[in-house]
Amino acid sequence: MSKLEFKSKSLDYDSTNSKKTHIILVDDVGSIVHVYLDESVIDLPNAELYQQAMQKHYDINFPRKAENEKIDKVQEQIAGIDSAMDIIVAFAVTTKDGMIASTYKKIASVAKPLTAGKRYSNGDVVAMPYPFDTNPKWPKDTLTLFTFVMQESEGYSYKSQKVEDMLRQGTLTMVMPRID
User: Fold this and answer.
1) CA 70 – CA 155 distance, rounded (Å)
2) Is residue 18 part of a domain?
3) Residues 101 and 149 placed together within one structural domain of the fold
4) In the chain, pLDDT over 70 holds for what percent of residues?
C-alpha cells in the first residue's frame, strides 16, 4: 500500500449538488481518492488541505478507530489533569498553620475518595466524610481530608475498612482546616 499524496484542488459540486473544495489524493500505484471539503477552505495552503482531506478520509473510512484515538487523547489529557490535581491537593495540605475553611472545602471537594482495591503510599491524600459526632465545629459527615501515614517503603491496600478504624490503627491522619 502506498502513501496518498496531494494531487490537486478545485471548486466542484459534490453528489448533493453543493459547491465544495474538491481534493484529489493519489498514490504511486494509480489509486485516486476524491475528498470534498467545505467551499471556504479552497485558499488554504496545499499542505493544510492535504491534512484536512486525509483526516476526513480517515474519519469516514475508519470511524471506530478515529473515535477511539480521540477518546484515548481525551483520557490522556484527563489523566494529566488528574495528576496535576493530586499534586495541588498534596501541596495544599502542607499549608503551614492550616488552610482557611473556605479553601479547605474547595480542596476537599476535588480530592479523591478512598477507592477499594487501590494501593496507597505515604502522603497520599483522600477526602472522606468526617466519621465522628464529637466536634461541634466540624460536624459528622463533613467532607474531610485525610493523609496516609506509613514508612516510605510501605503501602496500604484499601479494602473498604471504616475510616475510624484506619485512624485508630494510625494508617490515616486527619488534616483539619484552621477553624477561627
Assistant:
1) 35
2) yes
3) yes
4) 96
The verdict on 93 and 165 lying in the same domain is yes
Contact yes or no for 85/107 (Cβ under 8 A): no
Asked if residue 78 is part of any domain, the answer here is no
Position 16 pLDDT exceeds 90: no
Q: Are residues 98 and 141 in the same domain?
A: yes
pLDDT digits (tens, 9 = 90+) for 52-105: 999 999 888 887 876 788 888 888 888 887 777 777 777 777 766 677 888 888
